[in-house]
Amino acid sequence: MKILIIGSGGREHALVWKISQSKRVTRIFAAPGNPGMMPLAERIDIKPTSIIELADFAQAEKIDLTVVGPEQPLALGIVDEFNSRNLKIFGPTQKAAMIETSKSFAKEFMRKNNIPTSEFKVFVSAAEALDHFSRAQFPLVVKADGLAAGKGVYICRKKEEAVAAIHEIMLEGKFGKSGERVVVEDFLSGQEMSFMCVCDGRRIFPLATSMDYKKALEGDKGPNTGGMGAISPAPQLSRELFNQIMKSIIQPTVAGLKFENKEFKGLLYAGLMITRDGPQVLEFNARFGDPESQVVLMRLKSDLVDILEGAADENLFEVAADWDEGVAGCVVLAAKGYPQKYSSGHSIRGLERAKSLGVEVFHAGTELAADGLVTAGGRVLNVCATGPSLKEAMAKVYDGISFITFDEMIFRRDIGWSRK
Fold first, then answer.
1. Strand, coil or helix: what is 275?
2. Which of 37, 116, 139, 178 has the most C-beta neighbours closer than 10 Å?
3. How are strands ordered across the β-sheet holding 27-32?
């Protein structure tokens, strides 16, 4: 098989790494990919948002399966374009991807289908949102409606913070069109969990659970990011909780989307808060989480291609999975200033020494320069490892990190120790 992976981050590097282990795969392409993928995949200089060009490439190269990593191509309808050409692709259609690309749609959908989530209001006017804050009880959560790379969520503990969020999102246009509408919802407290499932439109194939760390700073402080680390499995999972999540959230979501003619084929990600009243949905994503996928794929012992192709072929009932019974952990090495302003172009050293300890290093924001590997993004590297226990897995991760250096490198030192 020839496989095309779309994207350039740590999630996509992990997908390339796992797919390369399949005996069925003969060649992997990555568009545009990153330097870390190069021993395993051929980089193709096509942007993830260049949908027609990607479809042309897949057609010309006779790609057997395309796997979409980031959310932007899904929002632009890449799956619809590939389907129109009878090209096999893993991911939801543009309509089904609305579960992620529009938070207001997702919240209204959950309300309509009795899927547990916090109370909310939607505003298209900054003045109306600001007026609402004068009567609201805090804390509240303010979210840009559209895609914002995981950075459009503001937890506001007092009115002044909510007002500032509206100014950034709606009046200053920090997220462009994604901020023309906002969702204001009640704050939920509890323990977070990431619950990912592969879907073929009707059937649901749950993956191993995980927990990510969104906040930039230790102790879960600072601004939201795309994710600063993750562990798998989620420590709070029990059989009873698993069954509750499937029955009250995942199954009605897949059935509700199918009823609305938005049949979901691909990766359905539910970001959950486990509250005293049970699991509630914080958000849905329509693609693999990042960095949650890195730790989940580290634990997958089965052939990932069988699972992805089963979803694309609407044939998941023939698929099974075997999981490592241990624990996987991941820490993101980022550039100082992330998720705000940061500098790039800093030389990266020590990767081979780190890997000699048995860790996997997935590239997230790197590029090759004349003098070697350099930083080229906010999130630069993902250092991951498995172990029989959380303590042993994280000790291996942090030992690996001790060998890696680049100017202005930052990372959280409490991943796996802080339980939220």
1. strand
2. 37
3. 42-43, 27-32, 2-7, 65-68, 89-90
pLDDT (tens digit per residue) in 358-382: 999 999 999 999 999 999 999 999 9
In this structure, are residues 378 and 338 in contact, taking their beta carbons and an 8 Å threshold?
A: yes
Coil/strand/helix, residue 400? helix
198: tokens are 């592969």
Contact 234, 209 (CB under 8 A): yes
The Cα 103–Cα 145 span in angstroms is 5
Domains of the chain as residue ranges with CATH: 2-91 (3.40.50.20), 125-180 (3.30.1490.20), 191-318 (3.30.470.20), 327-410 (3.90.600.10)
Euclidean distance between CA atoms 18 and 350, whole angstroms: 23
Q: Given the structure tokens 């399949």, which residue do they identify?
A: 22
Neighbour count for residue 173 (Cβ, 10 Å): 12
Least confident residue range of 91-105, 223-237, 342-356: 223-237
Specify whether the backbone of 173 is left (phi greater than 0), alpha (psi in -120 to 50) or beta: left
- pLDDT-derived band at 180 (thresholds 50, 70, 90) equals very high
Work out the angle at residue 51's Cα, subtended by the Cα atoms of residues 145 and 101, and round it to the nearest 5 degrees: 15
- 195 membership: H or E segment, kind and range: strand 191-200
Q: Has residue 420 got a pLDDT over 60?
A: no
Contacts of 223 (CB under 8 A, 6+ apart): 151, 215, 216, 339, 340
User: Which whole-number Å values give the CA distances from 83 to 91, 132, 261, 397, in the listed order?
Assistant: 11, 44, 16, 41
Q: Are 329 and 295 in contact (CB under 8 A)?
A: yes
* Residues of the chain above pLDDT 90, percent: 94
Q: Over the stretch 6-44, which tens digit does the pLDDT of each residue have?
A: 999 999 999 999 999 999 999 999 999 999 999 999 999
**What one-character-per-residue DSSP string does 135-157 give?**
T--SSEEEEESS--TT--EEEES
Do 170 and 182 meet the contact criterion of CB atoms below 8 Å apart?
A: yes
Band of the pLDDT at 72, cuts 50, 70, 90? very high
Using one digit for the tens of pLDDT, what is the confidence trace for 211-255? 999 999 999 999 889 999 999 999 988 999 999 999 999 999 999
Q: Which residues contact 176 (CB under 8 A, 6 or more apart)?
A: none
- What's phi and psi for 252, nearest 5 deg? -65, -25
343: left (phi over 0), alpha (psi -120 to 50) or beta: beta
Considering the entire predicted model, what is its pTM?
0.94
Which ranges constitute the DSSP H helices of 66-183?
A: 71-76, 78-84, 98-101, 103-112, 126-133, 159-166
